Amino acid sequence: MMKNWKPLLTLICLTWFIFGVFTFSKIGYQYVGKSYFQSENFQHELDNFLAEIGPLALNIPTAEELKSKITVSQNEIEEHRNYYGSLGTQIENIKSQYESRIQEAADNNANDLKTKLENERDAKIKDITKNFEDDEYVRKKIVAQKGALIDKYIKSVKDEAKDFAKNYNYFSYELTNENGEIYRSGNITDSNVYKKTYIQHPLRTGSISNNSSNLLYGSDVYIESDLLNEMTDYTGTITISKKAAQSAAIMGGYDQFKRNQYMFFMIWISSLIAAFFAWKGRKELLPTIGALKEKESLAKFRIDIQIVIVFITGCIYWFSSYAAFEAIEYMYQYNYVRFLIDFAFKALILIIIGVAFFVQVIWLYGRVNTVEKLSEHARDSYLWGIGESMTDLFLNRSIALNSIVMVAAAFFGGGSFVASVITGGGFPVIVFGICGIVGIPAMVVFLSKMGYLNRIMKDTKDMAEGRLNRDVKVKGKSPLAAHAENLNHLREGVRTSMHEQAKSERLKTELITNVSHDLRTPLTSIITYTDLLKNPDITEEERKQYIHILDKKSDRLKVLIEDLFEVSKMASGNIELHRSRVDVTQLVQQAVGEHEEDLSQARLDLRMTMPNEPIYAYVDGQKWWRLIDNLIVNVLKYALEGTRVYVTLKRTANGDAEFTVKNVAKYEISENADELFERFKRADASRHTEGSGLGLAIAQSIVDLHGARMSIEVDGDLFKVIVRIPAV
What we know:
Layout: H1 2-31, H2 40-58, H3 63-67, H4 74-81, H5 87-107, H6 111-133, H7 135-167, E1 171-176, E2 182-185, E3 192-205, H8 225-228, E4 232-241, H9 242-247, H10 250-280, H11 282-293, H12 296-299, H13 303-329, H14 336-367, H15 371-379, H16 382-393, H17 397-423, H18 427-464, H19 479-533, H20 540-572, E5 580-583, H21 584-593, H22 596-601, E6 605-609, E7 616-619, H23 621-638, E8 644-651, E9 656-664, H24 695-705, E10 709-715, E11 718-726
Parallel strand pairs: 6-8
Antiparallel strand pairs: 1-2, 1-4, 3-4, 5-7, 8-9, 9-11, 10-11
């Protein structure tokens, strides 16, 4: 039982080790070999104290000191003078401001009010006029404005200094400036928890507070705080006594730091122990994960889906680690019981998610740990299929372009509509105008294309169900129209294939019948005459006659079997040709010459037309002789007595040697003359003539082996065979 838990314990140890590494990488530098007074929190507190101790405690400036540093540039004078426009513009503005009010006082006979308003107007005009006449007059006004800003700053600094003294009362210091003036606060000789001495590197601080300096920029005129800021160096000591620390809020941070430090050290030490046990248990872990991935239900996951699941689980694992880390980092917000419950819960979630994550990682590694496995799973992934589909989109550039345009239009239309709703104004009118001009026609065209596609799909379904009597309608020159045309070609091909299949089945039946008939006829005779020979009462003359018939029928059966084997070997290509440069003219003359006597006895008038010069071709002379011989024998069997037979050889215009045999058939020939090439097919349907019915089939096989061409033409009773082979 315990053995079954080893892989799980190994994963738990691995998860805890990774959590330890995570926390150490994140904040290890803050706690290892550090005290609270080296922590970031205390350094931030100290930086704030040192930044404000100068302007709020050591070298607080007076208003007179700052005012003495005020300067006014000529640019400031010009800017103040022309702030409301030129002299004429400002005078006209003043007059227009008082004109209606003075007229109203005159209309009401309020002479005192009228006089008062006129005096105010004239005084302002006089002041404006003097601004443009006297730079010193303007400078004094600017100095007065800046002095008022400094007074506000000094008041703010005094209030801020009180808060500073109250908030940082746990700091003690004894500092001496460059003039030898000593500044003390508290007692630096008391037992302390923090001490810093500035001797070789003096404390440098300014006289302008960062917090209150923004007041100097809050008016029409402003004072550059850097011009007023006076930097001073101090040497001496800054301390925090134990007594002051215990009574100050700083100790809360100190205690929190120590608690965090102890907690993280425990986590890091335990994670190292967990790493040791995880390493020890790795041998039991891998076979268990291997058995897991062999399960059929899990093996169905494609690799990209598994990667997504691993990624999501990894993200949840990272967030769980961060949540557990924060539970420790900020545990000062809770009491200990609440902290332990919170941390235990988050640690449990972390372990569960971590175990799930590492199981999937190890499983994933087992599936792709070789290049072959990775390649196999990659090709089986959904992304690979999507990529192939996207690639297939560009097999037809027209469809790809139309698809991209339609998708872009959809995105543009949707985005524009949302933007028009958000923006408002005249923008929606423009959007709807564009949609009306472009979008609606595009939508109509798209829907029309989809309707045509549905029609093609319907006709394709009919075609798949065997209804081949109707063409798919071809509309226009679009890719869909081209597809419809291809479907029509496919329909014709299917119909032709079905016709050829029916023809093949018919010819196969005839072949079996003919083979059976042609082989059974001589075999029956052999059996019959063999039985007759067994009779002891037959005469010697009868015996000789029976043996002669047996010999004849045996030769007939031998010829049939040899021809059948030969045509089968030729049809399968399992025969070797011995090509050479042969004079086809001489070969035809010799082959035909051997049958001149037979032709004469069959009352056939031979007419040969041969060229005067030799015609050469690369052929197997023996096989080509057999070809010519079969065609002449075919004439002997099926030509009508008393007719002419024409044998012609010539060189065609395109350089072929063309051999032609023409005769008048004694039997009626089917319109489908190509069937005569089939094995055991005869023009004599009653099969009364001698022969195997393989003559033309053998001839066709010889022609095919040589890469030549052979055709049959029938015109009534006129039978014509044409053989063409490239001449050299």
